Amino acid sequence: MNDLIEAWREQVRSAAAAGGCIAIRGGDTKAFYGRPTAGEPLDTRGLRGIVSYEPSELVVTLRAGTPLAELEALLAERGQMLAFEPPRFAPGGTVGGCVTAGLAGPRRAAVGGVRDFVLGLRMIDGRGDLLRFGGEVMKNVAGYDVSRAMAGSLGTLGLIVEVSLKVLPRPPAEASLRFELDEATALHRLNAWGGQPLPISASVWRDGALTLRLAGAVAAVDAALRGLGGERLAAAEADALWAGLRDHTDAFFAGDKPLWRLSVPPDALAVALPGAQLVEWGGAQRWLRSTAPAADIRARTAALGGHATLFRHGERSGDVFHPLPAPIRALQHNLKRAFDPAGVFNPGRLYEGL
Amino acid sequence: MSGNAPDASSLGQAERDFSQVDKHRLVTALARVLPPTCLLHDLEDLRPYECDGMAALRQLPLVVALPETEAQVVDILKICAEQAVPVVARGAGTGLSGGAQPHRFGLVLSLARFKKILQIDAHARRAVVQPGVRNLAISEAAAPHGLYYAPDPSSQIACTIGGNVAENSGGVHCLKYGLTLHNLLKVRGVTMAGEVVEFGSLALDAPGYDLLPLVTGSEGMLAVVTEVTVRLTPKPQLAQCVLAAFDDVVKAGDAVAAIIAAGIIPAGLEMMDQPATAAVEEFVHAGYPLDAQAILLCEADGTPEEVAEEIARVRALLEASGATEVRVSRDEAERMRFWAGRKAAFPAAGRISPDYYCMDGTIPRKRLGEMLQAIQAMERKYAMRCINVFHAGDGNLHPLILFDANKPGDQHTAEAFGAEILELSVALGGTITGEHGVGIEKINQMCGQFATPEILAFHRVKAAFDPAGLLNPGKAIPTLNRCAEYGRERMGSTRQPAHPELPRF
């Protein structure tokens, strides 16, 4: 394994010296995401395997090329899970890709996102240095928290070679409930319920129906079922629903019309934009299928205090992520230069120039 | 300013020399943008700022500024940038690692007057507050809505949210409810260049690199916080606490592992060793069993049904792990009594000893037995007592080394004792600080936890935000010269130098 890491370090150093670029690839399941990039391919899948797993410490450490499915199966054997429910858009995704894409599934609003579960990692920076940040413990404030900032960086700051993640026990009980509600009422209820100690682990609204997933102790789920009303879904139907939303195999995500992800405050009212919408994360994530001009979509979303991402399809050579305010953009460019001064890794994948 | 800013080749090598700072020139410029009541520069006015919660280190600043508006913060930072003056931001000054210790040639930027709660939005479950608002005041303001701010550092009646952001503070409920970072939505701040920036957003994420985790816990070295938007959490209907006694600390550690392995995430899970128990019992009379080698406190919260289910499971696990006694709180008064002892651990140490030195390493829980045995051996080696309290749920250990600063050499011995505990924390796969920060106190031990390439990377992150290195210089991230010096001092010790090529998780 160390030979492979050494070879990659050499590849990075050579690329940096020659003004070349490297396109990092894991399972290539999220190639559609972000902006197009170029470079000599570097396949992380040779570096795989679990380094350590201590269920009673709630920590797993693994090499970046480990298939996500292998990790999730291992955790399931011990009654644990990646709580942020990473999407699997296609078979073969890797742990490194999961962390660097920073995408979370239906449980995001209840438990946190990818970065909240990253405890530490080892990475190769754009100088070819092997760096280790964070560790394997829950509480660690030594040095800047670089490992969490790597979540969602799309491989533009460095090549992750190993990562430690916090894991959680699977909830003993789960049940899904369906309510016939219009969007405004659904948004209001979601926020009101969010202020009560209810075991809501996921939510989705579309086409006049709100579905909640309850998860937690048996007693807590039973009490919520009694209190909330609604129509209970059969377990198989519920599982298919949440998996379809997580992995975008749901019919809403089919076709090649531009798919926008609007990340907004959960209390934002219904977003007045043309196209079909689907609301997740207690109101904080709105999916939109729309051919409306990008500028309109961004302006409308920003006015609500949020930001819009052209998640899939559409014109991808411009900004696909929301344009940044000038001072933040300057900090992001500085950070890129701090880790990758020669611009070796995935150039332009996140923003032009990053 | 640009003339003496560090260039890329010497970045992080040595401390920058600020001796050229001209106090008169600085005060004159500041007096143009601040009313006299916001600017302190006479010796007797500066005295209260000479240390934070780490009182062993004292240093007077040149000037203290107490701005009342964000525009004043911008003005102050621009003046300091122009005159190349170090700036140390300060909240309530309760930090334990010297992070707010003034710079000899610098300005202390106190956010004490930023104490307004700007908004409690119960429907959206968030609060917008100024950085000088006390941690507990947020929960008090949210309480009428059935909400609270979850992170609860032990100093929560005094410490401010701005300081919590700077340190990424924890508390006794981290395992279930997360650290400060996990409960933040947005942090607004001012960079050393005087630019107002926002990290995070009111949504659950923000575009581009996630700078919030970098800024949170950055010990005032990347930006000055002027406004914080926190997530509020619904208050659990009920909380109940189990107190368990063990005749052996290793058994208590195993019980902790058994609870977690059974799929339970308690709201709080704390351990105290026998000397700590004795010290607090004498002080607060919590009713702790004095013959136990260790006691565990395990709290369940949620709906009444949920709590009953969890308490029954925890009780069974504790008994199966060999607890000699298990008590469940019967009412809120008894629950508070169980906690009173744990929360009084630091004052109790202050009561049985003229001084104490609090450590903050985190280790994987399974190494607890080894750590406690090693600390016992160190007590003999240094001829000094140490009592141990432990956030057992997340592996964060607070050994309190008892000493008398008036005894010649005692302070130095306590520091050596502490340094050895921190180095062992790293060797056991942990970290030198779980929640108190590096500050100035643990800066040498950073050289043991991180190798040169990582230390350099930290300096580059710092420079990305603050190229001239004016925000809290000399804290949290050691210079390479310091590490080299520290390495020479430690030559002959058993520690091996860091090998960057080896996995050291």
UniProtKB/TrEMBL annotation, chain A:
Superkingdom is Bacteria
InterPro entries xref list = FAD-bd_PCMH (IPR016166), FAD-bd_PCMH-like_sf (IPR036318), FAD-bd_PCMH_sub2 (IPR016169), FAD-linked_Oxase-like_C (IPR016164), Oxid_FAD_bind_N (IPR006094)
* The entry's keywords: FAD, Flavoprotein
| Single GO MF annotation | FAD binding
Keyword hit for Flavoprotein: yes
Note the Pfam families from the entry: FAD_binding_4
Q: What range(s) does the FAD-binding PCMH-type domain occupy? A: 1-170
PANTHER family associated with the record: D-LACTATE DEHYDROGENASE, GLYCOLATE OXIDASE SUBUNIT GLCE
Question: What protein does this entry describe?
Answer: Glycolate oxidase subunit GlcE
Species the sequence originates in:
Zoogloea ramigera
UniProtKB/TrEMBL annotation, chain B:
Q: Where is the FAD-binding PCMH-type domain?
A: 57-235
Mention one GO molecular function: oxidoreductase activity
Instruction: Please name the Gene3D superfamilies in this protein's record.
Output: 3.30.465.10, 3.30.70.2190, 3.30.70.2740, Uridine Diphospho-n-acetylenolpyruvylglucosamine Reductase, domain 2 (3.30.43.10), Vanillyl-alcohol Oxidase, Chain A, domain 4 (1.10.45.10)
Keywords, in A-Z order: FAD, Flavoprotein, Oxidoreductase
The name on file for this protein is Glycolate oxidase
Ranges annotated as spanning the membrane: none
Among InterPro entries, the record links this protein to: FAD-bd_oxidored_4_C, FAD-bd_PCMH, FAD-bd_PCMH-like_sf, FAD-bd_PCMH_sub1, FAD-bd_PCMH_sub2, FAD-linked_Oxase-like_C, FAD-linked_OxidoTrans_Type4, Oxid_FAD_bind_N
What cofactor does its activity depend on?
A: FAD
Under the heading Pfam families, the entry gives: FAD-oxidase_C (PF02913), FAD_binding_4 (PF01565)
